């Protein structure tokens, strides 16, 4: 007797219906077939899928908030039930649910109402070793009419699951930059979830250079009328590195504006990048203007770039929407032009790559952060200089 | 602004099913519902098949049972697999000529206009599928003289077992997906085409398929082999009567395009709005070969169809043009796949989708460039046209690059029919519904102009119906 599996499975029909829960028990252990795991490196992320007390308790990583406390920008750490923790955050995968459960006290950065905070708030997060498992919840809240930049900077090595909850209150303008500059053996899975209220503005930038597996997934809800979101990303994957971002932009409010641009460069055997972009224009989001784009620059053979720019539209009354994805080797014409001006090929290649990635760096708008990102790109190029652009020779 | 967009009666003709009659249903009454090993064995026995085909079918059944339902795409929970007839035989043997066909079948085809099409010599050969088995087909003598084989798949299995066994299931293995496995288990009918080396078939080969039994799954199997340097254009058109409960259509189409050959496969899918249309179509393009899919999806309740091309030989070329129209209650999950497996391969995908009246139309695609496929290029262009505020448009492209020397791009635009466009056309003396239809026609024009004349006319007729505003 043949047993026929015709169990009706109704696939999730829109990105906004993806299941979520605060309880890790509600999530099956990922098999690699799930839409949000199928391109991930589950083998190396395995330590983050185990629901256990983190070894060094709350302080499995070092957090340095610099002068934020002195400037009155740090609120006492926030427990599970203390608002605004959990106001909008909904864990959508197992790693995120474990991080929620296992992090008792959240870090809470708050830009006071009506205040323009000049110098960026920098939170340095340093790992204590690849075998030290850490879980974190970080709340970044920009109060009504406030303005400022918050930088999360990651270094050292760790097995780190991280939730970042971003609240942009009416009329606030917030920039969040997350820099991943880990050692090669670090694994890092981050879920950033943000809401932008009426007239608010969020610029969110993910810059990933170091780390073994780095998965930073930002979700942004443009909930209020005239809310704006700019989601930018920059990644540079070397041999053996897996850099991933699953970006979700949900237009909920009337006349919201969204711009998503992620750029990646890949070099060396086994360098891997994964980019999944979901833009959902909800049925009430009339007058939406949205664009998403992902571009990858492949510098050597042996790399793999996945790019999935999804677009779901539930209303026809929009101002405009589009998306694009392009992957290729850098422009031979540009290279030829530069060489014809007397620039050596190696230097010309360097300039082309820098030109490609600087588009994101220049969007930061904070000089000290821009300088740091530019330096990281230079460092990557130095490392890749010895790698030959393999198959080009066989042209 | 919104009220301009919500009510669009003049567009209601689009996607509406015209052939809403059905013949008295005699064969269907005796067919069993539900699937079991017994049903599969009986199908094979009735067809007097050799042992290897029965084994393939049983393997397909086993894989169908094991494979899970897809966890992505459309909602398929409405399919009741136990309530489907997996095999229906309409006549005992194939008719030799038009006059041999039973009267009700002749009437069916008269209404579909097949004899006219044949007389006008627009059609090279007609294989008309009626309830799982081809009951009528005729090939013009000049084709036979060229050595072209064009017959229903069941006959081909009997008359050309050696070609059949060599290629069957090589492009789409039984375990490819749940519905390909189901097709392998219970397939019946479909077309078989073999074009010998260097032969150019000048006129399109054409087949009509119909579902005519309530709750009857139609599982045709098509196999096309274009030998080196040959050319053929195959056209598949679908119409089906409307019934009260849902039908399942799950075809498998395998195409092998050998060195320097070219195949174009055109589909205008216009199933009635209660049919689940879950189809696996795939072509293999060898060195220097060209494969083209032209895929129109207008009917059905749910369509999940992503014609794919495996570019396995150097300089192989693939092209897919896809148009999807979703009206009320319809979900068109259409798309395309291009898998670059050899150097210097090129492909392009152009997709156009229109959703109205709460329908949902989308593009789902995959482009993969393997590590050895250097100097390959692909472009994907998908455009969606939104004509009201309650319909839905989705784009799910996946791009996977494993080599540095490629050029690849995906671009999509979504536009709504703007008041400005309408106002402009109306200021030139056009009625509003006329203007709307013109915008829609202009939008799908890049696809329509690739269609053979009679299909372009059919598509235009649907647009015209919308212009009149008289339907619905």
Automatic annotation (TrEMBL), chain A:
List each copy of the SUF system FeS cluster assembly SufBD core domain by range: 133-356
Question: Mind telling me which SUPFAM superfamilies this protein's record contains?
Answer: Stabilizer of iron transporter SufD
Pfam families referenced in this protein's UniProt entry, alphabetically:
SUFBD_core
What PANTHER family is this protein classified in? PROTEIN ABCI7, CHLOROPLASTIC
Family to which this protein belongs: Belongs to the iron-sulfur cluster assembly SufBD family.
Q: What protein am I looking at?
A: Fe-S cluster assembly protein SufD
- What is the native source organism of this protein? Agrococcus terreus
TrEMBL record, chain B:
Pfam families, alphabetically?
A: SUFBD_core, SufBD_N
Stated family: Belongs to the iron-sulfur cluster assembly SufBD family.
Q: Which residues form the SUF system FeS cluster assembly SufBD core domain?
A: 209-443
Record-given protein name: Fe-S cluster assembly protein SufB
Spans traversing the lipid bilayer: none
> Which part of the chain is the SUF system FeS cluster assembly SufBD N-terminal domain?
141-206
């Amino acid at each position: 007797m043949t047993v026929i599996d015709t169990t009706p499975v109704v696939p999730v029909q829109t990105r906004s219906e993806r299941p979520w829960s605060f309880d890790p028990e509600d999530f099956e252990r990922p098999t690699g077939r799930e839409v949000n795991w199928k391109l991930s490196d589950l083998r190396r992320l395995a330590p983050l899928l185990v629901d256990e007390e983190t070894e060094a308790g709350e302080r499995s990583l070092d957090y340095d908030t610099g002068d934020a406390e002195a400037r009155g920008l740090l609120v006492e750490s926030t427990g599970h039930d203390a608002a605004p923790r959990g106001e909008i955050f909904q864990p959508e995968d197992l790693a995120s649910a474990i991080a929620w459960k296992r992090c008792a006290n959240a870090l809470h950065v708050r830009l006071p109402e009506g205040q323009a905070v000049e110098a960026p708030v920098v939170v340095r997060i340093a790992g204590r070793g690849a075998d030290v498992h850490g879980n974190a919840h970080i709340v970044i809240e920009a109060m009504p009419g406030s303005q400022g930049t918050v930088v999360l900077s990651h270094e050292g090595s760790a097995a780190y699951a991280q939730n970042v909850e971003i609240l942009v209150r009416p009329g606030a303008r917030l920039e969040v930059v997350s820099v991943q500059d880990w050692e090669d053996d670090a694994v890092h899975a981050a879920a950033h979830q943000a809401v932008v209220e009426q007239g608010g503005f969020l610029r969110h930038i993910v810059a990933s250079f170091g780390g073994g597996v780095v998965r930073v997934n930002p979700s942004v809800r443009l909930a209020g009328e005239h809310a704006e979101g700019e989601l930018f990303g920059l990644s540079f994957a070397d041999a053996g590195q897996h850099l991933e971002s699953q970006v979700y932009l949900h237009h909920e409010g009337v006349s919201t504006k969204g711009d998503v641009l992620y750029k990646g460069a890949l070099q060396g055997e086994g360098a891997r990048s994964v980019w999944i972009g979901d833009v959902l224009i909800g049925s009430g989001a009339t007058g939406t203007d949205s664009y998403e784009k992902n571009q990858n620059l492949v510098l050597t053979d042996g790399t793999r770039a996945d790019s999935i720019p999804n677009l779901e539209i539930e209303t026809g009354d929009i101002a405009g929407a589009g998306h694009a994805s392009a992957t290729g080797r850098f422009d031979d014409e540009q290279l030829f032009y530069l060489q014809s001006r007397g620039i050596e090929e190696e230097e010309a290649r360097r300039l082309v790559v820098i030109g490609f990635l600087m588009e994101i760096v220049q969007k930061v708008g904070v000089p000290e952060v821009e300088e740091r990102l530019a330096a990281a790109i230079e460092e990557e190029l130095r490392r890749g200089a010895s790698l030959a652009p393999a198959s080009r020779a066989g042209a | 602004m919104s009220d301009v967009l919500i009510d669009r009666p003049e567009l209601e003709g689009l996607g509406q099913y015209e052939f809403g009659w059905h013949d008295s249903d005699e064969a269907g009454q005796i067919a069993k519902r539900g699937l079991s090993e017994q049903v599969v064995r009986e199908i094979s026995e009735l067809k007097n098949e050799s042992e290897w085909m029965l084994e393939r079918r049983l393997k397909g059944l086993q894989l169908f049972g094991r494979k899970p339902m897809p966890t992505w795409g459309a909602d398929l929970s409405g399919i009741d697999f136990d309530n489907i007839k997996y095999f229906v035989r309409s006549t005992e043997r194939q008719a030799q000529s038009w006059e041999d066909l039973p009267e009700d079948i002749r009437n069916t085809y008269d209404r579909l206009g097949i004899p006219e099409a044949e007389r006008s010599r627009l059609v090279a050969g007609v294989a008309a599928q009626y309830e799982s088995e081809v009951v009528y087909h005729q090939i013009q003598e000049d084709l036979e003289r060229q050595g072209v084989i064009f017959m229903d798949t069941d006959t081909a299995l009997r008359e050309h077992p050696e070609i059949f066994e060599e290629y069957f299931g090589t492009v789409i293995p039984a375990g490819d997906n749940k519905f390909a496995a189901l097709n392998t288990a219970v397939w019946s009918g479909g077309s078989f085409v073999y074009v010998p080396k260097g032969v150019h078939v000048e006129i399109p080969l054409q087949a009509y398929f119909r579902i005519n039994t309530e709750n009857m799954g139609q599982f045709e199997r098509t196999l096309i082999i274009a030998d080196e340097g040959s050319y053929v254009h195959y056209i598949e058109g679908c119409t089906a009567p409307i019934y009260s409960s849902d039908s399942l259509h799950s075809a498998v189409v395998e195409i092998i395009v050998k060195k320097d050959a070219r195949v174009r496969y055109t589909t205008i899918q216009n199933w009635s709005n209660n049919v689940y249309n879950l189809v696996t179509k795939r072509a293999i393009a060898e060195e220097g070969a060209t494969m083209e899919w032209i895929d129109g999806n207008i009917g059905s309740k749910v369509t999940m169809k992503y014609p794919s091309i495996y570019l396995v030989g150097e300089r192989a070329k693939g092209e897919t043009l896809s148009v999807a129209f979703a009206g009320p209650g319809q979900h068109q999950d259409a798309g395309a796949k291009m898998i670059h497996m050899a150097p210097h391969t090129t492909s392009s995908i152009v997709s156009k989708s229109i959703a109205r009246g709460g329908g949902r139309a989308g593009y789902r695609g995959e482009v993969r460039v393997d590590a050895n496929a250097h100097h390959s290029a692909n472009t994907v262009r998908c455009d969606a046209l939104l004509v009201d505020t309650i319909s839905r448009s989705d784009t799910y492209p996946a791009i996977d690059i494993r080599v540095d020397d490629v050029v690849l791009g995906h671009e999509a635009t979504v536009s709504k029919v703007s008041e400005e466009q309408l106002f402009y056309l109306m200021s030139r003396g056009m009625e509003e519904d006329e203007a709307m239809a013109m915008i829609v026609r202009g939008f799908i024009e890049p696809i329509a102009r690739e269609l053979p004349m009679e299909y372009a006319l059919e598509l235009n007729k649907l647009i015209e119906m919308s212009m009149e505003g008289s339907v619905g």
